[in-house]
Design brief:
Blueprint: H1 3-16, E1 19-23, E2 26-30, H2 32-43, E3 56-61, H3 79-92, E4 97-101, H4 111-121, E5 130-133, H5 140-146, H6 151-156, E6 163-167, E7 170-174, H7 190-202, E8 208-211, H8 226-233, E9 239-244, E10 251-255, E11 258-262, E12 275-283, E13 287-297, E14 305-309
Helix pairs in contact: 1-4, 3-4
Bound molecules: zinc ion (ZN).
Zinc ion is lined by residues 63, 65, 103, 246, 248, 265.
Length: 312
């Protein structure tokens, strides 16, 4: 890469850089130019009135696999166009926020991948918060270089990207299962598991949804410390669901009453029977409703709603 190109990419990086801003207990990715305005808006609402009883509507996405080249494609799918379509749909009827469960980047988490992701975010940014969990094709340093994180979040667990979100009637905890960039397996690790255990001990009775990238089977590419995670969350009644991606398959299952929600990929499927798209979630104190927005692949289930009741 020539020096000229380096300079160009740094300039673009600065231009596209967003900051993470604490807003009424919620830490969100927001552009600098709208942060003050957003804080003011939130401040004007009385404490605790932020829709704790009304269901919260969110967009859940996974595996966007954005490359530096917008024409990058796989199995006749064009991830850049697919994410553009998903974000356009989401922007046309704005939910309260978005969560993306990793594999933002195509393969090795290049800066250009994240810059393209940012470009696609333009219709949403400054309007709603976007929270990201990292996947095995992400690069934590590159991600954090583009998406700034406040010191407090950086310190939660050294070397891991953790985000907690007060989403009205429910709480989100985004964990970091990225073990090593472009190695398939996932691991939370002991420090992060210990952090989670302590965090859950001190949190109130709001239903908690956990988010991370890796899938929950017993293969070498899955979350390797899943049994230890289950040991921690099984006795904690607030934990109602785990939302994840990685498999590029859409599906619902459960473990001891904890719902396991596998999001479809936005980018491409691995099998023709699978949709690509995103999931619209309505989340309340008692349960949630999940509607598939299929934008390609097998679209048979497009618009279908799945209702889940939280365990007590
Ligand atoms: Zn993926």
């Amino acid at each position: 890469m020539s020096e000229g190109m380096d300079h160009h990419s740094i300039t673009r990086r600065r231009f596209l850089r967003f900051s993470l801003t604490a807003v009424g207990g919620v830490v969100a990715l927001r552009p600098r130019w709208s942060a003050a305005q957003d804080e003011k808006k939130e401040d004007s609402k009385p404490e605790g009135s932020r829709s704790a009883s009304r269901p919260a509507r969110w967009a859940f996405l996974s595996d966007t696999h954005i490359a530096g080249d917008p024409e990058d494609n796989y199995r006749s799918f064009y991830p850049y166009r697919n994410l553009q379509k998903a974000f356009t749909q989401i922007a046309s009827d704005l939910p309260e926020g978005l969560v993306v469960t990793g594999d933002i980047a195509r393969l090795t988490g290049q800066m250009e991948d994240y810059e393209n992701f940012k470009k696609l975010l333009v219709p949403l940014v400054g309007r709603r918060p976007i929270y990201v969990a990292l996947g095995n094709h992400d690069d934590r340093e590159h991600f954090l270089d583009v998406f700034e994180t406040p010191a407090a979040q950086k310190l939660a667990v050294k070397g891991k990207h953790i985000v907690t979100v007060d989403a009205g009637p429910v709480r989100f905890i985004l964990l970091d299962s990225l073990f090593s960039t472009n190695e398939t397996m996932g691991l939370l690790g002991k420090a992060q598991r210990t952090w989670l255990q302590r965090y859950l001990q001190t949190s109130d009775d709001k239903p908690v949804l956990l988010f991370f990238h890796h899938s929950l089977r017993d293969d070498d590419g899955d979350l390797q410390d899943l049994p230890r995670l289950f040991d921690i969350i099984k006795p904690v009644a607030q934990v109602k669901a785990i939302v994840y991606g990685h498999s590029h398959e859409y599906g619902f299952s459960d473990f001891e009453g904890i719902h396991l929600i596998n999001l479809p990929a936005v980018a491409f499927n691995f099998g023709d029977d699978q949709p690509i798209g995103w999931v619209e979630a309505r989340l309340g104190r008692e349960g949630g409703e999940f509607v598939l927005h299929a934008i390609g692949g097998n679209t048979d289930q497009d618009g279908r709603a799945r209702r889940l009741r939280w365990r007590s």
